[in-house]
Amino acid sequence: MLDKQYQAKNYESEIYKLWLAHDCFNPDSQINQELRAKSPKIQANKSFSIIMPPPNANDPLHVGHAMFVALEDILIRFARMQGKDTVWIPGTDHAGIETQFVFEKKLKKKGQSRFNFDRETLFQMIWNYVSENSAIAVEQIKKLGASADWSRYKFTLDQDIVKTVLETFIQMNKDGLVYRANRLVNFCPKCGTAFSNLEVDHQEQVTSLYYIKYGPFVLATTRPETKFGDTGLAVHPSDQRYQQYIGQEIEVEGLNGNFKLKVIADEFVDPKFGTGVVKITPYHDFNDFAAWQRHKAELPEPIQIIDFAGRLTQAAGKYAGLKVAAAREQVSKDLEARGLLVKVDTNYQNNLGVCYRCGSPIEPLPLPQFYIKVKGLTQAVLEKLDHKEVKVYGAGHNKILRHWLETLEDWNISRQIVWGIRLPVWYKISENPDALVTFIDKAKQRISGKLGELLKTYSPAEISQGLQNINASVDAQYVISQNNPGDAYLQETDTFDTWFSSSQWPFVTLINNKAGDLERFYPTNTMETAYDILMFWVMRMLMMGVYQTGQVPFKNVYLHGLIRDAKKQKMSKSKGNVTNPMEISEKYGSDALRMALVIRSSAGLDKSVSDGDFKAMRNLCNKLWNASRFILLNTKEHLGEKAKKCPNDQVFQTKMTQLTQEITKNLNAFQIGVAADTLYNEFWHWFCDQSIEESKKDLINSDLLLDGLQVFLKLFHPFMPFVTEAIWQELVKEKLVEEKVLASSTWPT
RNA sequence: GAGCUUGUAGCUCAGUUGGUUAGAGCGCUUCGUUGACAUCGAAGAGGUCAGAGGUUCGAGUCCUCUCAAGCUCACCA
Known about the structure:
Elements: H1 12-21, H2 30-38, H3 41-44, E1 47-51, H4 63-82, E2 85-89, E3 91-92, H5 96-109, H6 119-133, H7 135-143, E4 154-155, H8 159-174, E5 178-188, E6 193-195, E7 200-214, E8 217-221, E9 232-235, E10 249-252, E11 259-265, E12 277-280, H9 286-294, H10 324-337, E13 341-355, E14 363-372, H11 375-386, E15 391-393, H12 397-407, E16 411-412, E17 414-415, E18 425-428, E19 436-440, E20 446-450, H13 451-454, H14 460-465, E21 467-471, E22 479-480, E23 489-491, E24 495-496, H15 498-502, H16 505-511, H17 517-521, E25 524-530, H18 534-549, E26 554-560, E27 563-564, H19 581-588, H20 590-598, E28 607-608, H21 611-638, H22 649-668, H23 672-696, H24 702-716, H25 721-733
Parallel strand pairs: 1-2, 3-4, 9-11, 15-26, 25-26, 27-28
Antiparallel strand pairs: 5-6, 5-14, 7-8, 7-13, 9-12, 10-11, 14-16, 17-24, 18-22, 18-23, 19-20, 19-21
Helix pairs in contact: 4-20, 11-18, 19-20, 20-21, 21-23, 21-24, 21-25, 22-23, 22-24, 23-24, 24-25
The structure holds one RNA strand.
């Protein structure tokens, strides 16, 4: 006999084992083949696939992960029960910068840093660390009830995956889509790597605007410390105040002695800002770099005065070695002492680019990097959007996607970190004597210098083995190849942007899985993920998917919103308002957690949840349980009275059919939150409060009620798989149902 | 500055091509417990659907404007 209350804890892990024992999640299993065989042909001939957004392999899940598991599992279980050839391919992500960042924190605690190790050693250390912890995410996803096919599981650094990713790069290079250029990049000195524009956050700040004397001019700048990198001055071409200076060289008194700057005219200068004069510092400001590109003929070569550690270089004279902030303070003091500082507006507001990862200021720095030409890729996706080959569900995000595709700039894919897929780029040692190389020698010393010089003391093998970093000049010759073209080469030390590999995820997971999976499941049906990675991931998957296969990687994009706390605030560790999905699962059950997240949620909109919501859905599980308990008790006494007609039978049956159709329609239209809400209300207030009560008065036939319960269990199953299966197994025991496992049973009609 | 989204009960949110007395959870009021469930049931209070105009036989739903909130992008050194 069933307990009086449903205790999720006592059932969930057993139920999950039952599903695995029947191989319910594998489309090739016997039970699913049987399911398809008895389903309508129109369904059985369709395939339905979802590629799981791979969570960070070694991180515990947050509530957003629980949201995607809930939504995707609903779609998958629904499709499977409909009889479609259904697969949900799970995976985990190496999460390049995120993971390396965490690992470096651990190193720091031991008094070490990434600079203590050569590249390969560091990679291996992180690999071991991730391997030790990589089961976390997978185990938790299972705990949430995900009906993913674990026999098709992939990790982003699996050998076959890496091979395909590299092949894509090589193909792109052949197609002329890859190039190397020395441009300003968004560099985070703290993280030690460049980022794409997308990974830079902008923060409002109040700062000082310094008015500095430059020969006959006064000009305003927020960054006086960059003045050692000035290679020119600019004014607006039609600015009457400065006409006579255009094209002239002026003499400027500086802190490291006097120097000369040429005055150029360029439209980008706003005459109304400051004094209408701008200093040109091409290597440390994006606008200035662009101006220099336009006026190359008139201006000298730029000077780099900030290095990749965020300190001033030798070119800054006596300020060399100072960090940017300290240099700014010192420079402004010295300017003042010399009478070169005219005034300081200390209440100036502007936006500062900061690292999305660590929050420190992004430093625009010149660095040769590999870029992907995106124009052709984005155009191809826009065409697919025009032809409605992809549909985006999520409050206006389709427009945002379009906007991004229309304005996207070339993609910097080089990252100066170790934890990732290394670029298959090889520099011939003998042809790149000017390449800057850092390596750990046999005596464990960190050695830096030009390759040509280092070769006088060290063997190529020693350099290659201890290699930390190679920074080849922008015009360096290189070979792109999966394998080492020979002993005389050094491999590029940069790794791919994590998104370069994950943008290929739908394709690489299928091509490297069971034979025929690509043809069988591509294009996938739905990509379901949070809207905040629309442009990082979804947009790039579309670009790469169309590039690789000519087809969109998925037909539908369902974007869920962020989960917020009861007060609508974003969850964050510092606020202490984070909902840990595993705690909720322990306390109320995974079904309750899933249902609370999903019910009345809508695509693209945020949702706030609190303890009360989870409790309410725990109560729903119990309601299902107890309604079943009543019917089980009742059925025994009244079985076989099916012939007996009761007054409300017809109404009951009609409503049951209508409800089934409604839920089916909702789910087909991705109206998941509405479907859940409807089910909740109809089950609780109509089926329990009304129909069960009526059956007690013999107004509804008991067998009909049992049929109704079965339908409800099926309709509820995608949402709350554990409790519905637990009840179903009781029905199996009582020989009241034929289908052995609810997870692989047929969807009602 | 540009774009997008949102504004419905005390709180958090549903309400899918416009169609009868606008819904749920939590909270609140009153009542109810000899077995399906107190993780419950019955009854109830509470909304001029942000505001104004328009289209329509009919608008929470469509259009225009205003106000408010949020997000994203771009920014003047």
